[in-house]
Design a protein that fits this description.
184 residues; 7 helices; elongated
Length: 184
């Protein structure tokens, strides 16, 4: 009985806004007319010269439009990557955040080094100035002059080694600046 009721059911009318067929809903009327002419040529209904006359263009311009249409068709038929897309603006903001984090980490490490130097009573290293002779061209026939080697005192080398060991101990033991100041 339910089958009989189902078969006698009247068809509902479709909403007026729905389009029937394969024609895309977007695009200007000129673009639709051009696409229709190109499809008719590709289907063999018209010749290219007739389509060019219908569009009001020259034959070379028609072939140019056809090539652009086929390129667009091929691009539209490419498989779409699944999953999240690469968003360049998000990637840029993430890199900027990481840059800021690394700058803070660098400043923190520099503060720890300064703190360790003060704890050992060492003066901070002075900035090395580039000598004006280093940038001059050699004067004796194009041969380079040898750079004089700085004398290095063994005590300074040992002190540098102790500072690097102390910095490593401070960072591994979690000693803070406040604890170091209280101790001194």
């Amino acid at each position: 009985m339910s089958r009989a009721r189902h078969n006698n059911k009247e068809k509902r009318p479709r909403p007026a806004g729905r389009r029937k067929g394969l024609a895309p809903a977007s695009g200007t009327s000129d673009a639709k007319r051009c696409a229709a002419a190109i499809l008719e040529v590709l289907a063999g209904v018209r010749r290219p010269s007739e389509a060019a006359a219908t569009l009001g263009t020259s034959l070379p311009r028609y072939y140019q439009l056809e090539r652009r249409a086929l390129t667009g068709l091929l691009q539209a038929c490419e498989p779409v990557a699944r999953g999240p897309r690469v968003n360049l603006s998000r990637q840029l903001t993430a890199l900027e955040r990481e840059n800021q984090r690394l700058q803070r980490e660098c400043q923190r490490q520099q503060a720890l080094v300064r703190m360790a130097q003060r704890a050992f009573g060492l003066s901070p290293p002075s900035a090395v100035k580039a000598s004006s002779k280093a940038h001059q061209e050699p004067q004796n026939g194009g041969t380079k002059q040898r750079r004089q080697r700085k004398a290095s005192v063994r005590a300074l080398q040992v002190a540098r080694g102790l500072c690097s060991d102390a910095t490593a101990d401070l960072s591994t033991n979690g000693v803070t600046q406040a604890e170091t100041e209280v101790a001194s």
